[in-house]
Amino acid sequence: MLDAIEAILGVPAPLLFGQLLLGLINGAFYAMLSLGLAVIFGLLNIINFTHGAQFMMGAFAAWMLLAWAGLGYWWALLLSPLIVGFSGIILEKLFISRLYKLDHLYGLLLTLGLGLIIEGVFRNEFGSSGLPYRIPAELSGAWDLGFMFMPIYRGWVVVAALFFCIATWLIIEKTRLGAYLRAATERAELVQAFGINVPRMITLTYGAGVALAAVAGVLAAPIYSVNPQMGSNLIIVVFAVVVIGGMGSILGSIITGFGLGIVEGLTKVYYPEASATVIFVIMAIVLLARPAGLFGRA
């Protein structure tokens, strides 16, 4: 059976499925990070370039909880999003809330500067070398699928990312809270007339978007080394994913994130030289054919 698959595909099956798994894992992080960006942009109209630093803060929060407080992975998965989300609420109150009525460029420049400051603080404190974070014992080992061995933790990352992405989409699209959030972006004064505290809701929305980045950081900590550059290395690709899916489109971010991760994995098999640029080539093509993105609205 495997020989037939290899003959059809022209590459060894373990190589193909291994790269598809890596692509799916990368896609899980693309989807979660672009989802947080889409929530913040779609509901607050802010291009949040601090998102990569907040992803890094989630990973560092998990590492510090383990190294300094002795709290393991599962506690980190619960507490890190709360800690980083609260820091995001403080940033929103102090800085970002002043920019909602200004041009997008001001928000982009402010959040880019804040991201560089946060990254610089962590680099000054912890250096540039990566810090290890061990996989929890419950998720160590691998499954023998017959055609490849799949690490249990990497399978968990894909399942967890799907859960958080679908849960976020359901909350925003199918609940009364989501309806209030969408209405507040169109007619904030009308929503406030019904007794809803719109500024508080906007602040909590920003905190929730930041918490999603922190969840992705905790999931990434055992896979990548925990270092101050881990967010900046990823955020440019994630912004390309958001543009392709459509700025502010929740469903577009989820589908495009996972899809582009798989495309990137396949490119590494058949044309490795283009794997670092294939997402940007797709972005250019999408912008020429459909400037609002695949799932966006003009």
From the spread of the alpha carbons, the general shape counts as: globular
Decide which structural class fits the backbone: mainly alpha
Do you know the CATH architecture?
Orthogonal Bundle
The major sheet is characterized as: 2 strands, antiparallel
Distance between the first and last residues' Cα: 47 Å
Query: Mean of residue pLDDT?
Result: 87
CATH fold-level assignment? ABC transporter involved in vitamin B12 uptake, BtuC
Tally of structural domains = 1
Secondary structure layout plus pairing:
Elements: H1 2-9, H2 13-44, H3 51-69, H4 73-94, H5 104-126, E1 142-144, E2 149-151, H6 152-174, H7 176-186, H8 188-193, H9 198-220, H10 232-245, H11 250-270, H12 278-289
Antiparallel strand pairs: 1-2
Helix pairs in contact: 2-6, 2-9, 2-10, 2-11, 3-4, 3-5, 3-9, 4-9, 6-7, 6-9, 10-11, 10-12
Explain what this protein looks like in three dimensions.
It is built from 12 helices and 2 strands. The chain is mainly alpha-helical and 298 residues long. The protein has a two-stranded antiparallel sheet with strand order 1-2. It starts with a helix and ends in a 9-residue tail after the last helix.
Quick recap of the structure?
The chain has 298 residues and is mainly alpha-helical.
Q: Which keywords apply here?
A:
12 helices
